[in-house]
Amino acid sequence: MKLFFYALRDYDEKHYLDECSEKYGFEYGFTSEYPDMDNLDLCRDYEGVSIITNPLNSEMLDRMKEIGVRYITTRSIGYEHIDVAHAYSIGLKIAHVTYAPESVADYTIMMMLIACRQMPYIMNKAAVQDFSLEGKIGREISSSTIGVLGTGNIGATVVKHLSGFGCRILMNDVYEKDELRVYGNYTSKENIYARSDIITLHVPAYEENYHMIDQKAIESMKDNVIIVNCARGSLIDSKALISALKTGKVGFAALDTIENEAGLYYLNRSGDILDNDERAILLSMPNVFLTPHMAFYTERTVYDMINNACIGLLNFEKNIDNPFEVKK
Asked: How much is the pLDDT for 30?
């Protein structure tokens, strides 16, 4: 079988792809470019194609089908960037990957601690030799009530790890997990908004979750609440968040992902004028910590992403049960 990889990074992913190619016995081609209508011919006659979080619309899918592609996988958990319904309507099969949840879970808790202790402000002041204490007082995570929205693999791991801090934990998910009840209590989103000192998001970017944190939700939260997002940027209405940060309704936002980040992250855009005004405003605020969608990025996770992408494509070809298949 021949596989083609778009947006492959030669400084980390390619090493693992070479290992998988030898282990599983397939040929592969690759490019560092993201797929678009101008470079889709690169994957001509490759049965399987791997992408990452870049859009695949109906026109691109039609072209891929036309030139011989049969299977597509995204090296990400989310797959909302692919027109899955159209893919299946033309006979393409779609897969995604899973990876160890500890990477994002640990990063999320790091973001909470950074927010609680105002680390960006402290370090910026220290850089200009201002070692005074005024304005730098922090909070203790162990005495906080933390609301976890979404208890899938990552959210559940956040809950388990947080339990060691001794904080109070509130949870919300469509599918409740009995094994998590020993760590906290399931409740409504509205109760989480009203009672939580810290709110962390771990839900998928489904249509029903778009702007789940909007002006109305923020108004129902405690004053000085901390919001952490290591999931998807579309979950938060950036304009509403910026407004609440200005007034102090939201005390701190720790964000690994924001709206309209496509075309920014994982690329070297130094020296470019970026068309993302909301990002610029957020970066200017001392009560914001913004990272470039890095929560997943560990050695273990990158291996999982490459390995599971390969397995997902190969399982399609073998016509065997595929745990990574995106269902219709």
From this structure: 98
CB atoms within 10 A of CB 219: 11
First to last CA, the chain: 24
What's the topology of domain 102-290? Rossmann fold (3.40.50)
Q: What is the pLDDT of residue 59?
A: 97
Rounded-to-10 torsion of CA 211, 214, 218, 219? -150
Spell out, as residue ranges, where the chain has pLDDT lower than 50: none
Residue among 75, 232, 259, 279 flagged as catalytic: 232
232 noted as active-site residue = yes
Helix (H) / strand (E) element for 185: namely: strand 185-186
Topology, domain 2-99+298-318 = Rossmann fold (3.40.50)
Distinct helix (H) and strand (E) counts, the chain:
11, 12
Residue 267 pLDDT: 81
For residue 53, the model assigns a pLDDT of: 84
Domain with CATH 3.40.50.720 in the chain: 2-99+298-318, 102-290
pLDDT of residue 264: 83
Q: Give catalytic status of residue 59 as yes or no.
A: no
For position 198, what pLDDT does the model report?
A: 98
Catalytic option among 75, 96, 139, 293: 293
Q: Pick the catalytic residue: 80, 102, 261, 325? A: 261
